[in-house]
Design goal:
156 residues, mainly alpha, two-stranded antiparallel sheet, 2 strands, elongated
Length: 156
C-alpha cells in the first residue's frame, strides 16, 4: 500500500493513506449566529439570469440604435431636437428607447447591487448604499419614461 508522508505542523509528520484520509477543511464562510437564514426564494438565480438575458437584449438594442442613428440616418451631424422630435413621433421608436432605458437601468442597478453585496462589509453601509441605488434607479426610470411619453416637439 502506497502512503504519502507530508509535514503537518512543526516537527510532526502525518501519513495519509486509505485509512487516514486528508483532514476536513471547514468552508471559508461557515455559518455563524450573524449569518442570515437561508431563504426559500431563488432571487440571486433570477438576478443572474436577468443579467445574462438583459445583456444580450441590450447588445442588440444598443448596436441597432447606433447602426440606425449614426450609419443609416446620416450620422451625428443630423442629430438634434428636430431629429428626436421626429423619431419620438413614432410609437415604435418610443417603445425602442423605453425598453432600452428600462433594461439599461435595471441591468446596471442589479450589477451595482451585486458589487455592494460583495464589498460593503457593514450591514448599515450596505443598507444605505442600496437605498441610494434603488432611489436613483427608480427616479431615473420614472423621469426617463415621463420624458419619452410627454415629449412635446412644439415647445419653444
Amino acid at each position: 500500500m502506497a502512503t504519502d508522508t507530508t509535514p503537518a505542523t512543526a516537527g510532526t509528520v502525518t501519513t495519509y493513506d486509505v485509512d487516514n484520509p486528508a483532514p476536513v477543511i471547514e468552508p471559508p464562510r461557515a455559518r455563524t449566529s450573524r449569518t442570515p437564514k437561508a431563504s426559500r426564494t431563488n432571487f440571486e438565480l433570477y438576478g443572474w439570469l436577468f443579467m445574462r438575458l438583459s445583456g444580450i437584449l441590450l447588445t442588440v438594442l444598443v448596436l441597432g440604435h447606433l447602426l440606425i442613428q449614426l450609419v443609416i440616418d446620416g450620422g451625428v451631424s443630423r442629430l438634434g431636437f428636430a431629429f428626436v422630435a421626429g423619431r419620438w413621433a413614432s410609437p415604435f421608436w418610443q417603445a425602442w428607447d423605453l425598453v432600452m432605458l428600462w433594461l439599461a437601468m435595471l441591468h446596471g442597478a442589479n450589477g451595482l447591487r451585486t458589487i455592494i453585496n460583495d464589498y460593503a462589509e457593514r450591514d448599515q453601509t450596505r443598507f444605505w448604499l442600496k437605498t441610494v441605488l434603488y432611489c436613483a434607479t427608480v427616479w431615473t426610470i420614472l423621469l426617463g419614461t415621463l420624458v419619452i411619453f410627454t415629449f412635446d416637439p412644439n415647445i419653444r
